[in-house]
Design goal:
By secondary structure, this protein is mainly alpha-helical. It is built from 5 helices and no strands.
């Protein structure tokens, strides 16, 4: 008696390998985000002009976004290759310790990025147009 074992699609294999590659860069990107945060905090402590403070805040936002994308890719790869095609496999992947760790890391980075976008980027006042 032969058992039917569905194989994964070629697209799922390609996406899985791509996510593994992007996920491997997570530690480096997280370190870049930490460095950008230190630069932002140093600029805030030095009370630099608003333009420089905004540039530092935007650099931190870009670094956080890159780290978040790498963490999301690592999370998808941790769920397994079958999770790309099957919703149930994704849910089972979250239930594993490795999957739960990546899920928590993604959630933490999303919260940090959203909090930074709401309160951490300096707003530069726009000049008022001349009354004419």
């Amino acid at each position: 008696m032969a058992f039917f074992r569905p194989s994964v699609s070629r697209e799922a294999e390609v996406r899985h390998h791509a996510d593994q590659e992007v996920g491997n860069s997570f530690p480096r990107l997280l370190e870049k985000a930490r460095e950008a945060e230190h630069a932002l905090r140093a600029a805030q402590a030095a009370q630099v002009p608003d333009d420089e403070l905004r540039a530092a805040g935007l650099a931190f936002d870009r670094a956080l976004t890159d780290a978040l994308r790498a963490a999301e890719a690592a999370r998808r790869a941790a769920f397994g290759i079958k999770a790309y095609d099957d919703r149930i496999r994704r849910r089972k992947g979250v239930a594993t310790p490795h999957g739960a760790m990546w899920d928590a890391e993604v959630s933490r980075l999303r919260t940090l990025r959203e909090e930074h976008r709401l309160t951490g980027i300096a707003r530069v006042p726009r000049p008022m147009p001349a009354a004419g």
